[in-house]
Every structure is written in structure tokens, then in C-alpha cells.
Design a protein that fits this description.
alpha+beta; 262 residues; six-stranded mixed sheet; Glutaredoxin; elongated; 6 strands
């Protein structure tokens, strides 16, 4: 608008013109803001899909007898051993590497113990940011992935592959969705079936129930174990806290076997 045009306008007309100009500028800023937000959102949605994931390491095969989903061993075994664990937990991985194979070989294959794995990720708090800095999203998601693998009779293959491929505790990269899918593919799962199970959160309630049961059992950290058996018709329960050496489990299991009803 030229100076002559402004001089020929009334004050009211000038105010209306300025208002229209301000409204036009406001709309322009609003549109620019919307575009900027859309670009930022698109970046955070698309970038994780393009970012390379860490390489998948094949898991060493572990033979387990009488597998039934997340349990292995004779369901009529006189002693039951339940582990509450977390695929992100370094102490849980230590038990898996050092002690679990000895228990399987000594007691499970002999029909004396049935061993069951249950999830208890981020047991300290229901909040994502626990006092341990845990990431319960990855703990939860890896547990759900293992239960989805059980639908294809490959719970223990997934169990071993998850422990093989954990990169760190609450690292934010070990068990993101794309990496869990890569692990599932590596162990030979039908990916259409797995993706449907995982994306639908089919086993979210079961994972949450695992954690509730762990808390009810008095969990103080992962891994946490319950040895149970019946003596004189009464169920006896012996807890073991932490990734103890095989000798500790051996002592408690042998005592349970000696006391169990025949």
C-alpha cells in the first residue's frame, strides 16, 4: 500500500487494512508451524524405520525335553522350578549361560524337575523410568515376542536367541520392534503369524500377570526362582534369589526331591 493510498484512507479503513495484514501474517505463521510440526513428526516416525539395527547373532542350539510352550520337562516331575526373569538383565543372562544348562542336564532330562520361564521385566516399578533406569518397554516387548514364538513351538529357540542378542541393559536398541522381528526371522518363524501376534499385543496380559505373580511371590530382583513340591500333601515353596551357582540349586533341589511325596 503506497503512502498516497494510506493518506486517502480514513483511520477506520487503515485499522481494517492493518488487521487484515496481521491476520494474513498470523495464518502464514500458523501454516509454517503446522508444516514444521509435520516434518518433525515424520522424521521421528520414518527415521527409526531407516536406521540400521545391530546385527543378529545366531543362537547356539540347546536341546530341552518335553517342551510345552515356556516349560520344559515332565509335567509330573516331583519338583517344579519357576524362573522370573528379564531378557535385558545381565544376571539373568549369566544364569542362562552358566546354570540353566546344568539344571536341564542333571534334573530336567532325568524327569525330576520341570522348569518354567516367566517374565518379570522392570520389576522395581510400574513406571517406565524406574530407579534402576530400566526400560520396561523392551523387557515387556521381548517377553511378548517369546510368547508369540511359543505359538509356533519355538519359545525356547526365541528364549536363547534373545539372550544371545541382548546388547546391554535398557540400551534402547536390543529389542526394538524391527530387531525383534529380525531375531524371529533368524530362528525360522512364520513372520506373518509372528507379526500378527506381536502387533496385536496378544500376550500383554500374560506378561503383566507374570510380573504381578512375581511381586506376589516376593521378588527382590531378577532372576528370582521358586522351587515347589508337595510333602505330606502340602505344597512347599523355596525361593532362590539371584543368579546363584549351580551348587546352590543342586542343594535345594536335592532336599526337595528327598522330601517330596513319592
Amino acid at each position: 500500500m503506497s503512502k498516497n493510498d494510506r493518506d486517502g484512507m480514513s483511520k477506520r479503513e487503515q485499522m481494517r487494512a492493518r488487521r487484515r495484514q496481521q491476520e494474513a501474517q498470523g495464518r502464514a505463521f500458523m501454516i509454517a508451524g503446522i508444516v514444521l510440526v509435520a516434518v518433525v513428526v515424520a522424521f521421528f516416525v520414518i527415521y527409526p524405520q531407516l536406521k540400521p539395527i545391530a546385527a543378529i547373532q545366531p543362537a547356539e542350539p540347546h536341546a530341552r525335553p518335553q517342551v510345552d510352550r515356556n516349560s520344559t520337562g515332565d509335567p509330573n516331575a516331583p519338583v517344579k522350578l519357576v524362573e522370573f526373569s528379564d531378557y535385558q538383565c545381565p544376571f539373568c543372562k549369566r544364569f542362562w549361560q552358566d546354570t540353566e544348562p546344568q539344571i536341564i542336564e542333571t534334573y530336567v532330562k532325568a524327569g525330576k524337575v520341570q522348569f518354567t520361564y516367566r517374565s518379570a521385566g522392570n520389576w522395581v516399578s510400574d513406571n517406565v523410568n524406574s530407579q534402576l533406569g530400566g526400560n520396561d518397554t523392551e523387557s515387556r516387548d521381548s517377553a511378548m515376542a517369546a510368547y508369540c514364538a511359543a505359538d509356533q513351538n519355538k519359545f525356547w529357540e526365541m528364549h536363547d536367541a534373545l539372550f544371545t542378542n541382548v546388547l546391554g541393559e535398557a540400551d534402547g536398541i536390543s529389542f526394538v520392534k524391527r530387531r525383534l522381528q529380525a531375531i524371529a526371522k533368524d530362528i525360522g518363524l512364520d513372520m506373518t503369524v509372528f507379526n500378527s501376534c506381536y502387533s496385536s499385543n496378544k500376550y500383554l496380559d500374560l506378561v503383566n500377570q507374570d510380573l504381578k505373580d512375581a511381586r506376589a511371590a516376593g521378588i527382590r530382583g531378577t532372576p528370582y526362582f521358586l522351587i515347589s513340591y508337595k510333602a505330606n500333601g502340602q505344597t512347599q515353596i523355596v525361593p532362590i534369589d539371584g543368579a546363584q551357582p549351580f551348587s546352590v540349586f543342586q542343594q535345594e533341589i536335592d532336599k526337595a526331591l528327598a522330601a517330596a511325596d513319592k
